[in-house]
Design goal:
Length: 390
């Protein structure tokens, strides 16, 4: 007999003209020739005023609907994924997109039809599947972590027995090992690259290098983030695919020092920068929105790197790796490096102490890197207008 998939149903709030909105949940019902949908009324918006009340009513409906099916009804991994996508996906846009890619591209096609008990009994099969994937070990680790998270949710929701997570038995080789070392630029290499860039891309690259920011944070900078009197900048947002979002981690939201020479360069750029309602530091003149980082990398950074004789493999994250390496070369203590890089840490002294003030050690370490990037022999080429990327 064909196994019947456990259904979570689809929640809807249906508006009504002369009465309060009503919450319903719809389930699939296989008819003789086609699939139909069966709607169950949960209650009005007045009877169910909160999300928690709606979910409790939906859970009761799910239990009743699925209990009426034959005994062979079991939750499939695909059904669990759909529930997770509906209720537990991260809100941060870039993280959400990454999770959806793992779920839709890798997990659903391979394991979606497996029931949870079947998949729980197949950790060796899962391990061999990972070995056959042509992905970086770190990416495999992310996918395995997501499978682990899905089973944790299944236990919490009461659709899989409490116990050891079966994904703990799956081993992935070299999960913490890089297949390729990140590219780091010397001072001369960086300066040769900058000479090949025109505005605003030259200032973008200098900002990435002088502050060690992620490119999503560079593109999301607004002039209101800068305090030129106190010589600080507050990093408090990122932008990916045109969507403004919060920074990567809580620790990433921090004040960074502004070297005086770098601050003067930014003030000079502000005089030429297009004014926009949101005060973006790097707006595309044709849209008044920040540039798309991928487009700038493909149309500006990579071609400039080739003209400078640096070859391939230069991207936005190259500057963040270079910033950290230059900090080390400048003799910055490791705790200062971690603060300037704004990396998350479980060490209490790193998370709690020393972040509220702008220490002289942080300012001196940052200035050392800025002076390396803004060397007098920069000799940047004359500016000319370029067709703005998207």
């Amino acid at each position: 007999m064909k196994r019947i998939q456990y259904q979570f149903g689809h929640l809807e709030r249906q508006p009504r003209r002369s009465a309060p909105d009503v919450w319903v949940i719809r389930f699939r019902v296989q008819g003789p020739t086609k699939t139909k949908y069966e709607s169950w009324r949960l209650g009005t918006a007045i009877e169910l005023p909160t999300k928690a009340r709606v979910e409790m009513a939906a859970q009761a409906a799910r239990m009743e609907f699925n209990s009426s099916k034959p005994d062979e009804t079991e939750m499939t991994f695909g059904g669990l994924i759909e529930r997770y996508k509906a209720d537990k996906l991260p809100e941060r846009y870039s993280t959400r997109v990454s999770y959806l890619s793992c779920l839709n591209v890798h997990l659903l096609p391979k394991w979606g039809e497996y029931t949870l008990p079947q998949l729980a009994k197949a950790p060796y099969e899962v391990e061999k599947w990972f070995e056959g994937l042509t992905l970086a070990p770190k990416t495999k680790g992310h996918i395995k972590g997501l499978m682990h998270r899905l089973f944790e949710c299944a236990m919490k929701w009461g659709i899989f027995p409490l116990g050891r997570n079966p994904m703990e038995l799956v081993e992935i080789k070299n999960v913490s090992k890089r297949l390729k070392q990140p590219r780091v630029l010397t001072e001369d290499q960086f300066l040769s690259l900058v000479r090949e860039l025109d505005e605003p891309f030259k200032t973008m690259v200098l900002t990435a290098q002088c502050l060690g920011l992620r490119i999503s944070e560079v593109m999301a900078l607004q002039w209101s983030d800068f305090d030129f009197n106190a010589h600080t900048v507050r990093v408090q947002r990122g932008i990916v695919h045109g969507r403004v979002d919060e920074v990567k981690t809580e620790y990433s939201n921090d004040d960074l020092p502004l070297d005086s020479d770098f601050a003067q360069m930014l003030l000079h750029w502000r005089e030429r920068c297009s004014e926009t309602p949101d005060g973006w530091v790097f707006p595309n003149p044709s849209t008044e929105k920040p540039y798309w980082q991928e487009t700038v990398a493909e149309r500006q950074i990579k071609p400039a790197a080739l003209r400078a004789g640096l070859g391939k493999g230069i991207g936005w994250h190259t500057f963040r790796h270079t910033y950290r390496t230059w900090l080390n070369s400048a003799g910055a203590p490791m705790p200062i490096q971690k603060e300037l890089m704004r990396h998350a840490s479980i060490q209490t002294t790193m998370n709690v102490y020393g972040r509220a003030t702008m220490s002289e050690a942080k300012r001196a370490a940052n200035s050392n890197v800025v002076q390396m990037a803004l060397r007098p022999d920069l000799g940047a080429k004359s500016e000319r207008s370029l067709a703005a990327p998207r």
